[in-house]
Structure formats: C-alpha cells, structure tokens
Amino acid sequence: MGKLYKDKAHLFHEVYDYVVNRIGSKEWKEHDKLPSVRQLAEELQVNRLTVLKAYQLLKKHNKVYVKDKVGYYVQTPLPSLVDLDNLNNPIVTAYVQKNALSEIHQAKVKYNFSQALIDPSLLPNQYFSNYVKQVFDDYPKLLSTYSSVKGDEELRESLAAYFEKEYKTYVHGDNVMILSGSQQGIQLVAQTFIKPRDTVIIERPCFSAAIDIFESKGAKIVPIDITPTGYDLECLEHIMKQHKPRLFYLTPTFNNPTGYTVPTFQRKELVALAEKYRCLLVEDDAYHDIYFSEKPPTPVFTYDTVGTVIYLRSFSKYISPGLRMSIIICHHSIMEPLVSARFLMDNGSPLLNQKIFLRYFHSDRLQQHLDKLRIALQIRKEWMEGELANTTWQWHSPNGGLNLWVKLSDEISTDSLLSKALAHYISFVPGQVFDPSKQYKSWIRLSYSFSNEKLIKEGMEKIIQLNQE
Amino acid sequence: MGKLYKDKAHLFHEVYDYVVNRIGSKEWKEHDKLPSVRQLAEELQVNRLTVLKAYQLLKKHNKVYVKDKVGYYVQTPLPSLVDLDNLNNPIVTAYVQKNALSEIHQAKVKYNFSQALIDPSLLPNQYFSNYVKQVFDDYPKLLSTYSSVKGDEELRESLAAYFEKEYKTYVHGDNVMILSGSQQGIQLVAQTFIKPRDTVIIERPCFSAAIDIFESKGAKIVPIDITPTGYDLECLEHIMKQHKPRLFYLTPTFNNPTGYTVPTFQRKELVALAEKYRCLLVEDDAYHDIYFSEKPPTPVFTYDTVGTVIYLRSFSKYISPGLRMSIIICHHSIMEPLVSARFLMDNGSPLLNQKIFLRYFHSDRLQQHLDKLRIALQIRKEWMEGELANTTWQWHSPNGGLNLWVKLSDEISTDSLLSKALAHYISFVPGQVFDPSKQYKSWIRLSYSFSNEKLIKEGMEKIIQLNQE
C-alpha cells in the first residue's frame, strides 16, 4: 500500500486506488467479480469497513456495480469524454515525446548526467533566504499587488540599463517583457507568429522542448546543422530562399546540447540574411553567463536595427531556478502582439519573484556568485573530460554551458547503453531526442552541472566500462 | 521631458525618444528636416552634445539620414517585419478588445469602481511578510528547486484533502494541477481542446478575457443568458443538441460581472445534460470564498462522476494576488493532455509561491482573514447599494463576489456616462465589454471591492449626479 495518506481515515482511498488500478491495468476485467469485502480486507490488512466504504464509493463513481445484492462487479467503462486518439491535436504527439525525456529525468539515479540543471549546492540558497525578508521590508504591499502583464517597470528599466551598459546598445524598458522562464517566451512567440504549415528553421541538434512547441502549432520544421564553427550560411540562405521561413529559432551561444558557439562575423551576416528574407530570428540565450575562459560573443540581437531579432535571456537558471526569471527583448511592433498573447496566457509573472530578483540582480553578490560558479562548473567539466580522454569517443570542448555533446563509436546503440546505464543508476540523454529527424543515433548529451566531481569520476568510469561489456 | 532616467548620461535617450515619438505620430513626416542640433538643444534645455549623440544613434538605427553633411532628415520607415494587419491572427483582434478595458483600468481615478480586485489594505500584507521568512526556514533549498509541471506534490495533496473534507467528494492529488492564475487554466483548456470552428458556449454576460481566449483559438461562441435564477435549461439543451459544443465555460457561483448564482438543482441537471451531449463543462469558481449571508451551493464538479467537469478555483485573489495561485481539478483523461500543454507553456509555477501559499493555507489565520474580509466587503456592497437606492436603476443584490451589475435607464448611453465619469476621476466598466454580441448597452459593472466606504459614497453620488446632467 502507498504511503500517501498518513491519516487512518483515508486508508479507504488507498483501497479505492488499489481497485481502480487493477481495473485500469485490465488485471480485473469488465464484469469480473471483485474479491469479497472480507477477502480484500485480509489481503490488504485493513478493516472490513474500510473496504466496504471504498466499494461504495466505487459504486457511486460507476466503476463497479452490485449484483445478487452482495457481489461487486467491474463496470463496463464509460467512454471518456476526451478521446486522446481522436483529439487530432499536436500537443498529444508532443506529450509522447516529452514522456521519453521525462522518464529518463524521473529515473532514480546516483550519477545524474541527464539534467542540464545546476547542482543546488552550488547556488546561494542561504544568502537568498535572508535576502527575501529585506525585499518584503522594501515592498510591504508586495503580495497584494499584481504585476503588469509586461512585468514590473522597475525591473524592466533596470534590465534595459544593464543591456545598454553591457553591450552599448540602446534598449528601452518598454522593449523588455518579464517571463516566467524562457520556455514561456518560445511558446508566446510560436503562438503569436506561427500558423499551421509555416516553416520554422531550427538548429540540428536543438533543445527538444522548442521543437515540441513549434510542432504543436503545426509548423513545418526545417533544420540547419550547427557545428563548432557555426552554420553553413550558404545553406541557410538557400533554406530561407526556398522555404520562406517565418522564423529561425537559434541558440548561438553555448547551444544546448552541443555547447557550440556561433562566431561574431556569422552573427552579423545572420541579421543581414534574416532582414533580406524577412525571417524573424528568435535568439535563445539561456547560458550566456556560464562561460569559462572568456566571455562569449555579444548576442545577435545587438546587431539588429530594424526589429528582426527576438531575444530571450534566462537569469534564474544559475541563481535560483525556483524564481523562474527570464526576459524577452524585441522591437515594439513585435512586443505589442506578444503582450496581448501574454495577457491571455497568464496575465503576467508574479510580482514577488520579480522584486526578489531585482534586489539580487543589483547586488555585488551576484557577480561574486557567478565568478565562483563558473570556476566550479569548469572544474566539473574538466573532470568529465578527463574520463572521456580514456576513450575513443569524440567531443568538442565547449567554452561554456552545462553539457558535453559526445560521439560514441558508430556501432554503439545509445538506447541499449542507456538501459544498462539506468540499471547502474546513471543517466544521460540520447542524441535523437534533440533532432526531429531522429539522427544522432551514436551521440549522447552528458551534463556536468548536476553531479559533483567525485560522482562525475565514478559515474563516467562506470559508463565507459558498461560500453565495453 | 520624462523622468525615466535620473542619470544625466541617459538624457540623450530621452531626446532619442522625443524624436522617435514625433516621427511615430507623423508630426515629423518622411524626408522632413529635423531641427538643428542647436535648436533642439535649446528647445529641450539640454546640452548640444546630448542632442548630437541622440541624432547619431537615430542615424545608426536608420530612423534618420544625413544630407548636405549637416542636416538630419526623417528616413522612410522600413517596413516592419511583422505586419499586424496581415498577421491574420485572432490574438490581434483580442488585443484591440483588451485595450478598451485596460484603458479604463489605466485611467488615473480616485473612485475606482472598474477593478474587480480587492483593496490591498484589506489584505494581510504585514502578517504575510513575516510568514515568508518561516517558509524559507522550512524549505532552505526552495529557490534552487524547480517545481514539477503539475505543481508541488505536498500542495496538491493538501488541496485534494481540503476538497474532500469540504465537499465529501473524492479528489486525488493527481487530479490537481497548480496554475499561475485561473486565466492560465482557461488558456490551457482552450489550447488543448479547442480547434478552429469548434463551438464554445459561454454565459451572457461573461468575463471578457475568457471570451478573448476562446476567440483567439478560432472558436465559434454561442451565448446562453445567465439570470438571477440560473439558465434556461431547455434553451441550453437546444443549443447543445444543435451546435454540438466542445465545451461550456461557466461561472455559476457569483458570476462576473453579474454576481448571479446557479441553484443546486440546475447544477445536477447541467452535469446530466453535459454528459448526454458529450460537452465538457469548464467551471470557473473564482469568487467561491467571497460569500455574505451563507455559503454558496457546492461546485458543479462535485456532481460529476465520469470526467465531464474541468474545475478552476482561485485562491490568491483574496489573500495575496501577488502570488497568482489557482488550481485546476479534472479527470485523469483530461489532466494528461493539459499537463503536456502546460509543460510547453511555462513548465509549471514557481515553487516559492506554492510553498508560501501552502503554509498560509494551513494556518488558522486564513479562516480569520476570510471572515473579516467577507464582512468588510459586505459593508462596502451595502454602502454602494445604499446610494443606488436613490436612483431608478435596477440590480439584483448578490450574495457574494465583488461586483454589482446595474441596469441604467434605457436612454442612457453608458459610453458617454463613462467619458464624463473618467473626467471626474471615477471608473466603471460598460456592459458591452462582457458580451461578444455587444448587447447590454444600458448596463454597467460597479466593483465595490477596491474603494473604501467613504470613496464609494462620494463616487456614487457623483456618478448619479453626472447621469442627471
């Protein structure tokens, strides 16, 4: 029996669930007789009254029926009002895809190389907790106030000023919208600008949720390869010419999963190409601040003057993922419908999270935290690469981000390696997840951000050994 | 000049904006010559270098061009990449609609009867601020943790237990999803279950954002009138039979804007009808806890046994709007695609807000706060009704909610009354906003929740007088 309900009085729900699960799994089929109250009470070691109460609720819910005054029988299930197979909705397809990845994430593992998340022990939890009280002192009516749809004005202006200072490019607070996570930004853009059968260019490989989002709007996906030296721009121009894409979703800085970065000269050309073919560039800059030896090139959006680039930037990922803090920067003509879509989507982010972030964003502690975090992540990366050096596997050492993109030998099946790995409490993500055409069968993504050095060393040794078995 | 930038170094951006606004408003047209640097510097009382810097940035951004080496001229505007008129996207239509309402909300008024929000001074701000620190002590890694897509398990289970206790109906934590506001729930449902040209039944009158959301998915809207005694169920059955609607979006408890409540016997029949015609019922229960003399009827979803009802319930509205806390309760077959859509939408609500709410939800203080709040709101309602009693206007005194739905004399134009009211710093919402067919021309919604008794008395006296002028 589960341990959901500590309260004895709720035991009968566990009995209820027990029966429902058996009916659901077809272990007990339509018109089968249920065990008698006495039998089930003994089997589950609960009071008979508990079982009786559960049976009565099952009857009320039309899951079972009564015959011969005493016997309980499995009811013919009523057809569900929502027939998933006939829903004809791309969301359902996305759901299946998502399940593949979330199954990996949900597996109980000791060596977690599948989550591109930062180890909570590297984050300033204690400091932040103390900080929050101060935020409430500064904004006593914080919890009773709605944010505007676009986000807190103070925060938007302060972020605009940050971008101006950092990149010497003019950004106004009105061109900034606060998001509850970058994924929301991708969703907003897709919802606003993508109609069924529009073409969307994505990088190959690409962050899987982005593919799901564009596919869920009925977009036709056309991939362009991303390599350690960027894109083949001739090929990109050819795609733009031929397919007239509505937008190109790109992660040119420490691409997920590869860690590759598009060089500065290509960034300028990208903007020119996009303007020429009237293709929006949706630049997702999730890992910008996680660099190692040197700062990455400035974002593509800084080369834009006419409103071609929609810029998404994450902040909370490497400070406090629990805050869900990202932003979108774009031209007024694009912002207007996005704000409208956001209004209908969730009416804006909670003000609390915005003000907490604002306070921290302005503190010296942020810079100190980032400096330390970069070093910690670089060391973890180097430990992982140290182990990989003992193999014939190939990878391009990234200058930032959270992942290594590793090519195994062609004959290795990453699926069977994953099964073996999971059985040994190790997780990673097979390459196909990042490609709608399911290539990259001999590639895997290894995240070095979630496990510490010791676990990285042990886990990598095990994977390498499993691969040789 | 605005007061955006306190920093002198940013003055040039104000100059920049000044020019952009004049070009945008066509005050300065294409190929017009801009004022000389000297002229504008004098006009705006800023340094000439500041103007020069702004002009240079305008040039860089292709807003102006230089001729004869010294003159600056307005550039032919480049076509925007996003042509709203040709976007052919229902979101844009919704935007126009939304603007009508948000213009009213944004007007600077002293007597605010347009916002169906609770006066922040009635909310437990100070208490909550102290509370939050405790939450961090209980969950030290709160800010470094993602919530699951569906929401925090502890919170979901505790809400399920609450519903079981309150309504004696079986709800499992798995049937609960945490939302960042109810509007997100409507959006999720619409996005998952509505295809273009599907029929959606709404109440007339109805919460305007809900209409916008369903229309933005291309739904065909069919209204059913809601009256102080509920719906005409024969008429509803006729609609269901004829239009085969995908869903019926209803707010049967203290409907917004009317405050009307659908009686218990109709609730049971509604579920039967919906099952018969395989029409989902989306029950939005935003004001359930704001009742006056007696508790409202139990929610429609408690009469559902097969998964016909999707139940939305708001909590934060009358505790801490800044938290954005609502939930959706539904059958497993409906929850599955909703979770998938939510994953793509924003990947779940921030954990921080959920844990803060959880702590408060379990405290005795919540009940005490609600008891006090109900009395305070009832008093405000009675003050407003006291003033209305001096007129020939008609309304049905509601037993809960935040609004009075008032019928003025037929000859009154609510639009012109609104213009006059706004000029006297009074706001309300004209009835047409709540009806896609723009009926209710002589009705208005007056919210008594945002202004205190004194302001209600003064403001109502003024409106009544304006109406007689």
TrEMBL record, chains A, B:
Keywords: Aminotransferase, DNA-binding, Pyridoxal phosphate, Transcription, Transcription regulation, Transferase. GO terms for molecular function: transaminase activity. The keyword Cell cycle does not apply. It holds the Pfam family Aminotran_1_2. It comes from the Bacteria. Residues 9-77 form the HTH gntR-type domain. Its cofactor is pyridoxal 5'-phosphate. InterPro entries: Aminotransferase_I/II_large, HTH_trans_reg/aminotransferase, PyrdxlP-dep_Trfase, PyrdxlP-dep_Trfase_major, PyrdxlP-dep_Trfase_small, Tscrpt_reg_HTH_GntR, WH-like_DNA-bd_sf, WH_DNA-bd_sf. CDD domains: AAT_like, WHTH_GntR. In the C-terminal section; belongs to the class-I pyridoxal-phosphate-dependent aminotransferase family. This is PLP-dependent aminotransferase family protein. The lineage of its organism: Bacteria, Bacillati, Bacillota, Bacilli, Bacillales.
